[in-house]
Amino acid sequence: MHSSRHLLAESAGGVAIADASLPRPWFYPHQFDQFICDVEFGTWEIFIKLLIVLALAALAYVCVSHALFRAILAAAGQQRWSDVLARPSVMWLMMGIVLLVFRTLLWFRYRPFAPMTAQDAPSLTVIIPAYNEGAMVTQSINSVTRADYPRHLLQILVVDDGSSDDTWQHIVQGERRYPNLVTAIRLERNQGKRAALAEGFRRARGTVVVTVDSDSIIENQALLAIVAPFRDRSVGAVAGKVVVYNSRAGLIPKMLRVRFALSFDFLRAVQSTFGTVNCCPGALSAYRTDVVRAVLDSWLNQMFFGASCTIGEDRALTNYILGCGFNCVYQRTAVVRTMVPEQYVKLAKMYLRWDRSYVREECRLLRIVWKRPFRQALIAFIDQLFSNFRYPVAYASLILLVRLSLHDPTTIPRMLVAMGIMSAFYMLYFLRSERSWEFLYGILYSYFYLFTLFWIFPCAVLTVRARGWLTR
C-alpha cells in the first residue's frame, strides 16, 4: 500500500523533497487509500456491509416498482418484436438481483480456513509446468522455495514442456541452486500443459499436490494456507486467491486487478460455502494426490464432441474431482500473483481460451452437479442456471438497445449512465477487501468489455471444439 510520503513533489538523489511553494492538487488518489486504510478493520467492514445492503434494497425496490424499466417497456411496446425482447430481459434482471442478494449473504458468511501449522503440515509436492517462460520461471521457483513450509516435507517438480527458448536453462539453474528441493523434468517435445502436469502428478511424493503456473509468484504463507482445508476429508481440491502481479504495467492490468477481485474472489468465496467451486485455477490450486491419480487417465484423455481437450485443464480437473463426490473449496489466504496480458490482442486470446473451456465444462457440470448432496446440488444448479441464462438475455438486450436507439437516440446515453451506476455498485464488493481508489478502473472495465470484448463469448460457442492455446 502506498503511503502519503510517496506523494512528495520532487526527488533529488533518491531523497524525496517537499516544496511548499508548489501548487497541490485538491485530491491525491493515494491519500484516499491512506484515509480508508486508517479506518479500523471492524468499522470498515460494518460500513461497507451496510452500504451493500442499502444499495441492494434500493435496487430491489426500483426493480419491483418497475421505475427503472417503465420507459424501456413503453418504448418497446410500440414495436412488436422489441416488446418480445424487453420483457424477458426485465424478468432476468429481477431474477439476477434475487441471485445477487443470495450470493451476497453467502459471501458475508464465507470464512477462510485456519492455516496449517508446520507441525501438522502434510507432505507436499509443488508442480510448476513451464513452456517458453524464460527467466520468469526462476521467480516462480524462488517464490516456492522461500515459502514458509517444512523443507523435509516439500518436493518441487519443475516440468519443461518442450520449450524452444532458454526456459530449460533457467529450470536447471534452479535445480542446481536448490539441489535437495527442486527436481527438473524435461519433456522432449511440446505436449501441452495437461501432459506436463500429468508427469508431475505421477512423480509426486506428497499426499497433497499443489500446482503453480510458471508466470506466477506465491506469497510466503500460501502453502501452509492452501493445505489447511484438507483437514476435512470431504475436501478434494482447494482454489487459491489469484491477484494480478503486473497491475502497474498499463491500463488493461489495472482493470483486470479489479475484475479478478470480483470474478475470482467474490464468486469462489460464494461457491466455497456450498463446496462447489467450479474452477480451481492453474495459477494456484491444491489437490489430494490419490484423488488426482484416480481420475488422471480420464482427465488426460478427455474428449468433447469427438475432439481431444487440451485447454481448460484446471476447470476440467475440478469437474472430475467434483464428480468423485469431493468438495472443492476456496482459500482466500492462499495468495498467488500472476502475470496478465498487457495488450488487447493477448487479452482477447486469453478470454477466448477461457470461454471455450467454460462452455465445455459448464455442460459437464450440469450433469455432475446432481451427484452432490441434494442441498448443495440445488444451490449450485440454481446458481449455474441464472449465471448462464445471462448470456442469451444480455445479447438479446443488446439487440433491443440497438432497435430502440434507432427510434430514440437518448436510449444509448441513458443505458451508459445506468451501466456506470451498476458498476459503481459492484465496486462496493471490491472495496470491502481492497481498500483502493483503483475501484474506478472496475467501472471503466464495464465499458471496455461492452465495446471491445462483447464478441468473445459467441465466438467461443461457435469454436468450442478448437484446441489451440492461442498464446503458444
Structure characterization notes:
With 472 residues, this protein is of the alpha/beta class. The chain folds into 3 domains: 4-32, no CATH class; 41-109; 124-378, Spore Coat Polysaccharide Biosynthesis Protein SpsA, Chain A (Alpha-Beta Complex), CATH 3.90.550. It contains 16 helices and 12 strands. An 8-stranded mixed beta sheet has the order 5-4-3-6-9-8-12-7, with helices on both faces. Helix 2 (41-65) packs antiparallel against helix 4 (80-109), helix 2 packs antiparallel against helix 14 and helix 4 packs across helix 9 (251-272). The two termini are 34 Å apart. Residues 1-27 have low confidence and may be disordered.
Contiguous low-pLDDT stretches (5 residues minimum) are 1-27
Mean pLDDT: 86
Q: What distance lies between the first and last C-alpha atoms, to the nearest angstrom?
A: 34 Å
The radius of gyration computed from the alpha-carbon positions, rounded to a whole number of angstroms, is: 24 Å
**Main pleated sheet:** 8 strands, mixed
Helix and strand content put the structural class at alpha/beta
| Largest sheet strand order | 5-4-3-6-9-8-12-7
The CATH H-level homologous superfamily of the largest domain: Spore Coat Polysaccharide Biosynthesis Protein SpsA, Chain A
Quickly name the level 1 CATH class of the largest domain: Alpha Beta
Tell me what the CATH architecture of the largest domain is: Alpha-Beta Complex
* Continuous helix count: 16
CATH topology type of the largest domain: Spore Coat Polysaccharide Biosynthesis Protein SpsA, Chain A
Secondary-structure element series: EEHHHHEHEHEHEEHEHEHEEHEHHHHH
